[in-house]
Amino acid sequence: MNKARVKSMKKFWLVLSLAMFCLIVGSLWEFSLNDWSADKKIFLFQERLKFEEKRLDEQLRKLDHEAERKKPEWKGKQSVLVGFKGSKLVYWSNERVGSPRLYEILSAGSDFVKINNLYFDVRKHAVGDTVYYALLFIKEDYPYSSNYVKSHFNPSLGENLDDASKVIIREAWEKGGQLVYNRDGRPLFKIESQVERGDVVPTYFLLIPYIMFLLLLFYAYEISLDRARSFRMQLFHVFGFFFLIVLLRSLMVDYKVPQVLYSLPIFTTSQIGGRLIVSVGDLFVTMFCLAHYFFITFNKLKIKYDEPRLVRYKYIFLVGFVIGVFFYTNLLHFSINALIESTQVSLNIARLINVDFSSIVAFITLIIAGMGFIVLINSSVRYFQNLFSISQAFLGVTGVLVFCAALCYFFNFSLSPLECLFPLSLYLLFILGVYLMKQDAQKSIFMIALVVVCIYIIFLAKSSEIHREQGVRASFANEIIKERDPIFEHKLLEVNDEIKQSQKADSLVKVGDVDLLSAYISSELLDMTGFYYTCKAIICDPRDSILLTPISEKYGCDEYYDKLIDSLGTRIGYTSFFYIKDFDGVVEYLGRFSFSTPRGGSCVYIRFESKNRHEGIGYAQILSREIGVEKEVRYPYSYAKYKNGILVDSKGDFSYPRNLERFGKIEHARIMNKDGFSHMVIPVENDGVCIVSLGDDVFALYYLNLLYAIFVSGILTSYGMFFRFDGGWGSFRQTSLTLRIKKNIITLIGALFLIMTIMSIIVNAESFERRHSSKVIELSRYITDELEHNDCVDAAKCPQILKKLKDMSEVLWVDINIYNWDGVLVATSRPVIFEKGFDGALLNPKAFEQIVKKEQINFVQDEKIVELTYMAVYMPLVLENGERYVLSIPYFTRGEELNKDILLIVIIAVNIAMIVMVLAFILSSIVAERITKPLQVVNEKLRQMRVGGKNEKIVYHERDEIGMLVKEYNEMVDKLEANVKKLAKSERESAWREMARQIAHEIKNPLTPMKLNLQFMQRTLQKGDMEEVRQRFKDISAVLIEQIDHMASIASAFSDFAKLQEANNEWFDLSELVNGCAKLFHENVDVMECDIEPNVSVYGDRDQVNRVIVNLLKNAEQSIPEGREGHVLVRLKTVLGKIILLVKDNGCGIPESIRDRISEPNFTTKSGGTGLGLAMSYKIIEAMGGSITFESVENEGTTFYVVLKQSN
Fold it and tell me: What are phi and psi of 1044, to 5 degrees?
């Protein structure tokens, strides 16, 4: 055995040993973290708890100095410090503990308390006459969970949980759970954990040894192929390693190992299909292993083409390869369809919305699968090159794939017969490239194949995603048609027996007080917090009747409601409640209960009808009990419900018509496109129709994903990954000037766009913050002005203030909180938030410091309540009687709007960056090749430079070929500058010639009729008829005067145009000037509409501005064709420090072909014009620092905008 083989074998065993070492380390590490008994977990929990208690005790002992209370330790969420002097609260570090019973709770002496849905471990310390309580946060325990309400556990005490609802805290005397003690040995509480493996946020560092194991395993396989002495031994390694990978993948899928990997969201157990493809993560691992396996195998496999057996069975070799490609194409096709149909991933990366980590992984996975496809075809064609002629390879591949297409026709394959053309086209492409082209040109063939594969993947993905969306839309429509509320129905199941057994309800029925009965059911028996329903109780005696007004029919009370239940009702479980299916846009439930009354038995009907759920954002979202609705519906649907052809309910961006006629006759469910939306129209029983619409923009950018696919595949191929040529790895890892230029261009452009995107987001976010801060401060001032006229704003003293705050909140769409000068909540527009413990009834400590102690006029900061972040504004509120309060406005709109703004910027920036990056990737090779061509050729090309753009000189001091190039370039720059000057001079002379021609033309026009009239006068004189001479003289004089006036006006126009710089600026009333000019044209236009803001002053030349306005009005009048009723709108407004004058007409408009020349001095579309009117107007307004723009639609009209700065 030679030294090289010994060295190779040692390397193989070393790499394999390192791989096994990484696997063992990862397994032991994961086992040590997961194999904890309940006692060990409680022990560790108590040790952490005692450590935190010790830290708090040390901080409490340092409270001899007041400054210690301002340390950051008391600012965090994990602990709160409160101080009392007697029973008066004097200090608090967090407002969440605010409660009317705070002193009572803490002074009771318990070591473990619950305040506002928060559990705390209490540590106590006295400093003089002040008693301080340090409250160590344990866990949140909200009454329910929803999209915006989640319970959290103190992460410093236990496992890192996203939602801690499965950790149950009980009092120490209750049954169940394990007892927890404090550091003083006293029992605190009992804890019971129902946390499963998937609930814990894993330690992702555990993935490192497993990833190293996989990579080292493939490296060991590569070494084994290198050291194999024969082709047969190589085949043994190839098939052996393949079965090893299949075995490992089977063990991973069956036993969900490693656990840290399968705790990732992309490894959820949603079944995609197949044995080794269970989730997005499994698909990624499988495709990565396959692609990497193909790459290493075909790169290292050494085939002896003169082997007799291979020559004898070469056609079997060809058939086997092509059939393998056919099955891999089936796998790729199946993976795309199954991935989209069985998961919630979105491959529409370009749109970014609904694109999460799983979607990105899925997208990259499909690109890797496509790269493996190219490796398979490219390698097989290179093997065919040494065994077959080009015609044999072409016919052989075509024949096998035609046979495969027949299989697809007769059997249930993922591919259709027509789709077999895809692998055939790639085979033909590579056969032509490998057989007929040189080595360098084959790279272009590879890039073309790459684009073809990306197009195929994106095309299939879009088709599958559109199909999935239609299924989701149908399911969404089905839920809308049902008009049911499962969460509320569950509540009705709970309250059903309570209503039957309630003695108070029985008493209220006997006295017949339906209002009190309704209030009792909705507020006491049934907690309606977060449910948007009206509750109405109806007591029906046998003698009661109901008159239906529209049809004038009279029914017995019981008869009417029983008929409603029998015809439209569906019983909810075994309760007395029924869901009423009426398809009227309202969710309705009706309960039927029997009670005894002095007059006999009575039926009580309890009716719940849904009301408008949109009560704003923020607090209303916290109170809402909706769970997962936003996550289930991934598309921005609009919907409408029609009954008897009339719209009864709608929601979303699409504006639905009141009548259904616009959608035509509806006999069966169908999809139609109208007004930029796709509408799924579904007929519903009882003359109902449900329409669910989706904007066309959702899939508008889908084919832009091709650029992302090309970019990702380009990154994978940048260093020779997943493809090879006969030169192997080395030919792609040589560092050349061309490659360096290419990499530098791509890196520079990528870094530039990344920086620009980040800066855009930062600038936009800061601007948004400032804008909304100003907005909410103004809103707070308005509320302060409204409230300061009240004599009382304390709800304990004047309960009517609550109604006023609620009314203001509904109008302004913000919540309002009022605190007294001691920082205690005294009134709010949403009391239930504080009653249910979602927030504390104390003023934020920072706001208390700034407003009360430092007496600032306002204070703005970001705060958080449960899962919502918002902007809070604080402002002092001083009543007319001198009482001082603090007004607080939680402004929730900011977060959602900011996210939308940032997302829009990101979408635009990322897509533009991707387009530029792909172009840079494609063109960088061309650019690099052009730069690195022989310098003599480059020098010759630079000699051909022409005028275009600004050319700067290059400073280069070396005397080499590049110096010669630079010298020629600099000389060319000088020549270009000289030519530019000559060109500018020529253009000026041309402009003067054109002006002179225009003047001559304008003067010559009136001279001709003047000459003709004078000649005619001469002939009249020769006749001698004096009467005719006098009449002719009179006529000719009028003509001559008119033409002379016209020549004078021409001279004046050109003179004025030349003297535009001589402005006589002054302050004048623009509103008065515009109004006066408009009156001049009242008689010339059928309808003259004026909307002029008064007292708008401007600094400029009044006469020149008058000329601009008159010119615009005159053009508007003259643009209206004969036979059309003329409408001219003149509007003057000031907006954001700018004066905007608008002149709009309904004339014939300006043709597209001449819009760019409209401001040229000698350009006119009228037979009698000089073409100077608009040119003068443009110059006048530009001299004043303004601008003139216009919008025009042919045959509809033109709108001119004059924008001036509003000077002080």
Answer: -65, -40
Determine the Cα–Cα distance for residues 781 and 495; give it in Å rounded to an integer: 45
Chain-centroid distance, C-alpha 986: 54
CB 712 within 8 A of CB 700: no
> What pTM does this model have?
0.65
Cα–Cα distances in angstroms (integers) from residue 320 to residues 291, 314, 419, 488, 918, in the given order:
18, 10, 20, 61, 36
On the question of a common fold for 761-901 and 1059-1205, the answer reads no
pLDDT averages per 10-residue partition of the chain, 1208 residues: 74 93 89 65 82 88 63 64 91 90 91 92 89 91 78 75 68 82 88 62 76 93 87 89 92 86 76 69 91 89 80 90 94 89 84 81 92 91 90 94 94 90 94 82 80 92 91 89 85 89 87 87 80 87 67 76 89 92 86 78 86 59 60 75 90 90 87 92 88 90 84 71 41 54 75 77 75 83 89 92 89 90 93 88 92 91 84 91 92 62 68 72 67 49 52 58 65 72 66 62 63 70 70 70 64 56 76 83 82 86 82 84 85 82 86 71 49 71 83 85 80
The residues that bridge with 569 in the sheet, in sequence order, are: 580
- Does residue 258 have a cis peptide bond before it, meaning omega lies within 30 degrees of 0? yes
CA neighbor of 1101 nearest in space, from 1141, 1074, 1063: 1063
CB burial of residue 173 (10 Å; 0-12, 13-18, 19+) = exposed
Joined tokens for residue 857: 């006029």
Could you tell me where the beta strands, DSSP code E, fall in 781-849? Answer: 817-820, 825-828
Q: State the Cα–Cα distance between residues 322 and 379, nearest whole angstrom.
A: 11
What's the 3-state SS for 1076-1117? HHHHHCCCCCCEEEEEECCCCEEEEEHHHHHHHHHHHHHHHH
Per DSSP, the three-state class of 1134 is: strand
What superfamily would CATH give domain 761-901?
PAS domain (3.30.450.20)
The DSSP element (H or E) to which 178 belongs, if any, is strand 178-181
Beta bridge partners of 878: 884
Phi, psi for 586 (deg, rounded to 5):
-125, 130
What does the pLDDT read at residue 1050? Answer: 60
In angstroms, rounded to a whole number, what is the distance separating the alpha carbons of residues 780 and 777? 5
pLDDT at residue 276, rounded to an integer: 59
Within its chain, how far is the Cα of 822 from the centroid?
43
Confidence at residue 114, expressed as pLDDT on a 0 to 100 scale: 92
Q: Contact, 82 vs 92, CB < 8 A?
A: yes
User: How is domain 1059-1205 classified at the CATH fold level?
Assistant: Heat Shock Protein 90 (3.30.565)
Residues with Cβ within 8 Å of residue 1079, at least 6 apart in sequence: none
3-state helix, strand, coil in the chain (%, to 5): 55, 20, 25
Report the C-alpha gap between 49 and 37 in whole angstroms. 18
Strand 1127-1135 and strand 1087-1092: the pairing is parallel
Candidates 24, 349, 40, 390; CA nearest to 193 is: 40
Domain ranges of the chain: 39-142+181-194, 499-634, 761-901, 936-1053, 1059-1205
Helix (H, G, I), strand (E, B) or coil at 1126: coil
Q: Which of 541, 539, 564, 544 is nearest to 554 (CA)?
A: 544
Using CB atoms within 10 Å of the CB of residue 955, give its burial: 0 to 12 exposed, 13 to 18 middle, 19+ buried.
exposed
Q: What is the DSSP string of 661-703?
A: GGG---SS-EEEEETTEEEEEEEETTTEEEEEEEEGGGTTTGG
C-beta of residue 449 within 8 angstroms of C-beta of residue 374: yes
Q: Look up residue 503 and give its two tokens.
A: 């003695």
pLDDT value at position 954? 55
Give CA separation, 100 vs 829, 835, 886, 1181, in Å: 18, 10, 18, 66
Which sign does the torsion angle of CA 89, 90, 94, 95 carry? positive
- Output the pLDDT for position 919: 74
